[in-house]
Amino acid sequence: MDASDPTLRPRPDAEVVVDLGAVRHNVRRLRELVWGDRPADERGQVMVVVKADAYGHGLVPVARAARQAGAEWLGAATPAEALALREAGDAGRLLCWLAAPGHDFAPLVSADVDVTAYSVAQLEEVVRGARVAGRPARLQLKLDTGLSRGGAARDDWLALVTAARHAQDDGDVRVTGVWSHLACADEPGHPANAAQLAAFEDGLALVADAGLEPEVRHLANSAGALWHPGARHDLVRLGIASYGVSPAPEVATSDELGLVPAMTVRGRLVMVKELAEGDGVSYGHTWTAPAPTRVGLVPMGYGDGVPRHGSSRAELLVAGVRRPVLGRICMDQLVVEAAGAEAGDEVLLLGPGSAGEPTAADWAAWCDTIGYEVVTRMGGRQVRSWVGEDER
Ligand SMILES: *Cc1c(COP(=O)(O)O)cnc(C)c1O
Fold first, then answer.
1. How far apart are CA 177 and CA 145, in angstroms?
2. Which atom of ligand 1 is nearest to the CA of 181?
């Protein structure tokens, strides 16, 4: 334990608690939703995406929970995330997909991580890494089917596939996967979805023509897996839904999907006080008491991941009652309406919603963002802990 790290010191007034039982439930529930209507031998696989510290939930504990719930794959963005999982003892299938030019792939190859090539130049770097490691790289090829982000452009795809075939013949790589990523999966009626599906099929045809037989072909994130059955292929890459947050609450809420949000952010009121009519609250006095008002001080702010856009918009559950945030959210603290509450009373900033506390979806609506950003950025000086670690 690093005593210089303030987030490791006990701090019951500001906590992030992650329910690993909820993560396991969600992974199992999603497998059922995605693959449950197929005969057992035709079901595909599940990847739980644990990038960005598992969307703020904790890389290693979440990875362990995902494996307990049967995830065949884990997904990481950066090589560092993938290697951290190996160092923590994870030995299952693991894919990463975001390396910059000049990256040394040898450690990833040695660690049996599936790596992704976006271009022939990157494939050559993977081959170099494989030669240093002294074993073939497990290589996945990414096609840009319309997101215009990572992956080979359509015009460069044949060259990448051909080069991968040669590298496989030379014994430097094994092509284990071919994949792409959807731009508009959270808008089920968007025409880009069908266009990307068709482009992916075209890309897969070139892979088959080259005589490559990847273990997995995959295209779907959470929204794709839930709402585009044609995008499921052999494997779905589940990020946000694994954490119990709907990728698009306007399509279906997490409740409607049978998912349980895993993150709770809670604390205690540091003090309460009575304001007189006309008293301004917090920086800029953007909120002024219209009448005598009892307020409470919550010891968390944007330095702890509480979005400042929630100023005078967000609500918290204080002593069991929903109450508005008053005025601007500061770096370390915020002020909340607190009629009848006392210093030391419990404050729920975020949670599954079962006690009436706000959810990530609520914060997203208040702050004009998405639940992904709310949970991923949550954390700072709160003590983070995990519950439900051992039960199965
Ligand atoms: C983040 C990410 C995912 C997971 O997306 P969700 O919408 O969170 O399910 C899947 N695939 C790739 C390539 C990603 O970057």
1. 15
2. 13
* Torsion, Cα of 18, 20, 24, 30 (10° steps): 0
Nearest ligand 1 atom, CA 55: 8
| Ramachandran class of 112: left when φ > 0, alpha when ψ lies in -120 to 50, beta otherwise | left
Nearest residue to 387 (alpha-carbon basis) of 62, 147, 114: 62
Instruction: Tell me if 72 sits within 8 A of 262, measured CB to CB.
Output: no
Let me know if residue 312 belongs to a domain.
yes
Average pLDDT rounded to a whole number, residues 318-336: 98
Q: 201 CB contacts (<8 Å, ≥6 apart)?
A: none
| Span from the CA of 238 to the centroid of ligand 1 (angstroms) | 7
Contact 275, 297 (CB under 8 A): no
Check whether 1 has a pLDDT greater than 50: no
49 in ligand 1 pocket by Cβ < 6 Å?
yes
In a domain, 69, yes or no: yes
Ligand 1 probe mutation, 23, 49, 180, most atoms within 8 A of CB: 49
Over residues 83-108, the mean pLDDT reads 98
Ligand 1 centroid–CA 247 distance in Å is 10
Strand partners, 178: 141, 217
Mean pLDDT along residues 285-296: 98
Catalytic (active-site) positions: 51, 283
Do the Cβ atoms of 269 and 341 come closer than 8 Å?
yes
Domain boundary among 179, 213, 244: 244
Any domain includes 96:
yes
Q: Which residue type, as a one-letter code, is found at position 278?
A: G
Helices (H) and strands (E) in the chain, counts: 12, 19
In a domain, 4, yes or no: no
Residue 329 belongs to what domain range?
A: 263-387
Question: Dihedral sign, CA of 202, 46, 121, 164?
Answer: negative
Residue 307 near residue 375 (C-beta atoms within 8 A): no
Cβ-based neighbour number of residue 10 at 10 Å = 8
H or E element at residue 169: helix 154-169
Please count the structural domains in the chain: 2
11: pLDDT confidence band, cut at 50, 70 and 90?
A: confident
pLDDT of 346 strictly over 70: yes
